[in-house]
Amino acid sequence: MSKKLWSLALALTVSGAALAFPTKPITIVVPFAAGGPTDTVARQLAEAMRKHLDNATIVIDNAAGAGGTIGANKVARAPADGHTLLVWHIGMAASPALYRKLPFKPLEDFEYLGIINDVPMTLVGKPQLPANTYRDFENYIRANQGKLNLGHAGLGSASHICGLMWQYAVKLDKSMATIAYRGTAPAMNDLIAGTIDVMCDQTTNTTQQIEAGRIKAFAVTTAKPLSDHPLLKHYPTLQEMGLKDFNLTIWHGLYAPKGTPAPVLQKLNQALRAALKDPAFIKKQAELGALVASERDKRVTPEGHKAFVAAEIAKLKAVIDAAGQYAD
Ligand code: MLT
């Protein structure tokens, strides 16, 4: 084949025109139970990405357990052909500080495809909780230490990290009893039923429940009030409530197994970035209080995503080391 033809063939392959991908349904592993915040992000993202992946079928696999590390490990060990992906959040950065025997290395065992969004958290309580303001809430927890329980989705989950950060910030003498679930969807059922007392959960899972009056909300965890959201704007930030520097949003990223071919990674990153510009996806996320990453956000590039997670690993290690006594 002439040199000219070779370079054309190479260009076509790299450009993706001749790229044979996807060649079968794509599986997105969600490392928590169906119906929770991570599942919601993954399903909405899959819908927005499909049209940029030759309308491939995208299947969600809820592989829950151990704070998300079981599902993450499943992807780290999956064939590196681009047909098995992972949607996960700050757990990717928190788990090294919480699991002595983590079965994967966050910065070595995955290809980084880009950050998806940033999601605020809300401090919420069961409907019977005798509190209607954040001040009442904090005073009630203080007055009943050792008697109340907090639900979360396992060590290193967003709800777990938020719970330990809040307990540390208010300097409880005794850490709350915690109940771990396979995700905050099942935990939410128990909060609504009054089986658990409190939770710190993402707005993607709490907004509709707060709106329906099924749970009580007391504060948001972001540094700034959620002034753009018709419901969440009514809740103070924890900084406004005196918890200096409290600032927590839950980012979600998209990952493939290490070794996935570069042209496949490029096509997946292009499909992700196209989805992040999809007005329907942006709107659905905003209705739940979530902010989709913008094209100007350097975290939507593989390099920017990986550098961000590396920094978050160090940041969350410091948080967990400081608040260790509340980490279960
Ligand atoms: C978490 O707390 O990490 C998530 O809310 C878990 C989930 O998505 O269910």
TrEMBL record:
Keywords, comma-separated and alphabetical: Receptor, Signal
InterPro entries recorded: BUG, Bug_dom1
SUPFAM superfamilies the UniProt entry points to: Periplasmic binding protein-like II
First and last residue of the signal peptide: 1-20
Database matches in Pfam families: TctC
Presence of the UniProt keyword Coiled coil in the record: no
The organism's place on the tree of life at top rank: Bacteria
Annotated family: Belongs to the UPF0065 (bug) family.
Official protein name in the record: Tripartite tricarboxylate transporter family receptor
